[in-house]
Predict the structure.
Amino acid sequence: MEFTKYNHLIEEKKIYDFWEKNDLFKPRKKKLKKTFSIVIPPPNITGRLHMGHALNNSLQDVLIRYYRMNGFETLWQPGTDHAGIATQAIVEKNLLKVNINKNDIGREKFLEKVWEWKSESGGLILEQLKKLGCSCDWSRSRFTMDDDMSKAVTKVFVTLFNKKLIYKDKKLVNWDTKLQTAISDLEVVQNEVQSQLYYINYPIMDSKENITIATTRPETMMGDTAIAVNPKDKRFKNLVGKFAIIPVVNRKIKIIEDYYADPEQGTGAVKITPAHDFNDYDVGKRNKLEIINILEKDGKINENGIRSYVGLDRFEARKKIIGELKNLNVLEKIESIKNKIPYGDRSNTIIEPLLTEQWFVDAKKLSKKPIEVVKRKKTIFFPDNWTKTFDQWMVNLEPWCISRQIWWGHRIPVWYGHDGKIFAAENVHDAKILAKKYYKNKTYKLIQETDVLDTWFSSSLWPFATFGWPKKTNELKKFYPTSVLVTGFDIIFFWVARMLMMGNYFLKDTPFKQVYVHALVRDEKGQKMSKSKGNVIDPLELINEYGADPLRFTLISMASPGRDVKLSKDRVTGYRNFITKIWSANNFLKLNNCKHSKKSDKLKIKLPINQWIHSEFFKTNQLIKKHIKDFRFDEASRVLYNFVWHSYCDWYLEFLKPIFNSKNKTSIHEAKQFSSYMLSNILKILHPFIPFFTEHVWQVNKYNKEEKSDLINSDWPVSKKIKLYKKNTDEIECIIDIISAIRSTKVQLNVPPKEFCDIIYFKESKKIKKFINNNTEIIKQVGRVNNIDFKSDKNDSIIQIIILKEKMGLKFQTNIDLNAQKDRLSNKLTDLEKKIFTLNQKLNNKNYVKKAPKDIVANDKILFQDLKIEQTKLKSIVSSIN
């Protein structure tokens, strides 16, 4: 019989097309009348699939497929984010290539170009998610700029404005001088660079004294309004309250006391520039200092600066002022340092804190309900340590800047009267009604706000706006609040917290019951992936080379709480081999004409090996359900892997061979039926993890015809308590222990695995002798044993091993240099005992056990026990060599 190889390039596309064509991702009403829903963290339309997406969406797909198979009506809500700044930057760049400037064609024409680009390239990321196997209901896909989403955004803005929770104010924001817009903290990258620290002497007014400050941005001296020293710093007590003269600028500023000044940093004296530094801004507010903005929005010096500097770029101004400081002999020294500088992630330009007029949300007031919701565990974070981080951040919230000075996005629904009066309305018609009422039929003119809303504002409505809010839809009633949100830790504050704010305010209920926070995917050395380092691993390349299933299983298996995923191609190769192992197992069943029957689950199993695998499957199933519920995806995949590879493929199928080779028709019939039945159940529990391959095998084996269901919508194996057949399963475990001991001894002695050996009994082998004699055929065949003899005397050519707490001898046909092996194993034993000693000390350290992550401590304890077992085996072999 010939067997084809599994070709993932052909089969994955075929299977996904089959799922989509038959609408198998849509919610289906189930008998349980329970629902399970997830909203996808909407990827940017500018995005391309990266490893973060691959991990995040693989985990979501595991949950959706698992709950779908467990009788829940499931909805995985997909969609994309319009990514205001990023999308505008790409379209602007494309237009410049054909010599078109956005300002020349105007706002409306430019937006038409953006929509054109979106229709051509904006859906690519969703197609790439399909290659990963994501089972979202694509028919419900949403886009943050869709009409219905836009209406929801407008309604939320107007409502919050009318409740005085949205307001306009002049504050310090992150300003991108290239894009000329405010940006969020998430769009700021802190890059470590080589910088210069300038020590500058400020003369004390009416004195010969100086006060020295240190700064990396000497050009901002033009905006200085004070010098701060720490109240506890005795060095400057005599200068507090006096005035210093800003060199070159020739303006006097007061020396004040403020705890922001750190005596250990720089000189201990800090120049305060409230308009150009966030910390200085806070000091300025506390001390009621003047705020002087010296920069235009393009980063050039404005009229508040020195007259001869006006119009200079900030960095040109820096060079000029350093030269003048040198000429005045007030530049004490220049120190080379490394420090972190904020860059815009889209423009790669140094970000300036800039005082501008912006729209803000009163995040402090909106945060009260989410804090309470998390405290009452209506929303639970996994791992739990993120709860504390969330609480700390929410307590110290600043107003949320929601305006952006770009064209692509939700235009802020505000109109200004001729006198500056603000009218917030859902459309211009409503704005005119408000204006008419306010101006009492007098002549007025309305001008719409040109700013658009921050992308995070619209995406904060994602869990309910995607379900049709503000309409009272069936989806909203059925699937809100959603069951779980799967997200990276880097957007807990920018997105998760804001969804909690909006959901609790507008729907009076939390948007998700649970939040699972996963770590980053790094390279195999633990370094963050970046193009500059050249260590980026493209998930699409891995999918093309190995298939989506091996990549998924790799990422899922490494998703340990609080630990970054260190990805390497070798790991993906290993899980491709896992799939090959299952394919080979399936071919073995085919070769032996093992056919599945729906009646197999009612089959009365009598063979000990079938009873054993049934019991092992029951335990595995229980553990997988528990681990998925606890978001321990790594543990679920570990249990799965061990059961499928070792219990089923290695042991179970090996133990079937003697049965298939026997003439016992009853045993053969049971073995054929039950082995196929077990494989069908294995495909079910593997399906959420490796969906393509399992669905393919399901169809190839015609299980869909027998069970009248595709695998994706089949029922998860029932975990009802089964008879565990303790006596027979214990017997199989003993056989496995004996064969494992024989194989392990071969490895230790460098004996080829295929080599046969003899089993020798001693006087101390009473129980084991009886046991082996009862299972001679299977031990001989699977354990590669020739003869089983009894000898009372021990001789030099027999290796003693301890198995089942009794001694047993092994005699190999290969001529072994026992003395050389004894020396080698003795050295290995010495190294092993050193490891045991070190690990034992570690585990006896109370501080380590208390402070280290629980899963790491648990792994150390397991390792310690494994090493002790290995030590016992080695000691037995070494002591038996005279």
Observations:
- The longest strand covers residues 188-203.
- The chain has 30 helices and 29 strands.
